Amino acid sequence: MSRRAVLWIAFAIVHVAVWALGFVLPNQPMGDVHNVYEPWSTWAIDGDAIVGITEPWIYPQLALVPLVLAQGFAWIAGYEVAWAIFITICDALVFGMLVGTGRSAGRNAAAGFWLAFILLLGPVGMYRLDGVTAPLAIAGCLWLVGRPWLGSILLAVATWIKVWPAALIAAAVIAVKRRLAVLGGALIVSAATLIAVVAAGGGATVFGFISDQTDRGLQVEAPVSAYYLWRAVAGIRGSFIYYDGDLLTFQVSGPEVDAVIAVMTPLLFAAVLGVAALGAYRAWHGASFVRLFPPLALAFVLVFIVFNKVGSPQYMTWIIPPLLVGLVIDRARWRRPAALGLLIALVTQAVYPIMYYGLLGAHPLPAALLTLRNVLAVVLLVWAVVRVAQIPRRAATLVHQAPVHP
Fold first, then answer.
1. CB 122 within 8 A of CB 20
2. I need a labelling partner for 385 at 20 to 30 A (CA). Which of 27, 238, 282, 400 fits?
3. Percent of the chain with pLDDT over 70
4. Chain-wide mean pLDDT for the chain?
5. What is the pLDDT of residue 212?
6. pTM (2 d.p.)
């Protein structure tokens, strides 16, 4: 049996397994699908309300598109199964592009890593919008060199679904030689989206997702929340976990929490600028795309995670594209960070959905696992930043690199 056939069989097994886990694991790993995705898409189809247009929304406007498209499969067995089918189709299209003929060892390793990550992260990676943006981001990254316009367009579409792929665009603008093509593709998608939203009457809500995110409190899973989480675990008065009914998330509270909330957004921007400056310095001194882009992209997405007030488990899907591209280019150098990424995925699933009820009850074991997950993310961020910093000046292209573009 060919390697390509083995990978496709593994693809089917992994996706069916994660489908099933969504139905059997505790704490509603499919909660967003039936609680909000289905109502939002149904309202839009029925003409009752269009989130992001007729009313403010926590997501960019293109996020509604996959929610509505998934409704096309709802006749099979309801919206939850429809969403799983839709995500599987998205994954399959990009998986086929990645594997190709199955003759590239780097691409095969990357495909195996992706499947392992999907399985270890569990249903939260499939039953969230991030399950749409991850394959889009992977395809966009793989096309950045050979087809930068197309790669940029895909990354921009993903950004207008969930904001995080903007980190990959930033890394591409720094690392790709054809920067104008990268910027051009992103501007075309952004302009078309804004024009469509304003024309539909959504001018007042077009950037509502930005203000909604900046006004958030500290979500319990965020790295910065560890101090308040462990105070709650210790039973210290004044620190506790509570449910935010507007944002549908669990957050932490405690002494000086408002000051911490206020400083996190500026701190995030400062960290992003620091990584961008380091990457630009290396690019200015001749770092090649294959050396610079994967660690720079990984550093950007991990800054988005580590310095974020929100730490939802599905955010771990963000590290898939840069790790995958790193394996395609140089699997020997990227084997260890990829293994660390898989460990992060496994610990994340252990916390949510498996032990999430205990976490909300401030039990020590799930709190310790969550803290471990966040520490591992910081370690991976440090590795990525150090990797960018250590790129030699006028770095030569790797001799045995696999081609990045399809």
1. no
2. 400
3. 96
4. 93
5. 63
6. 0.94
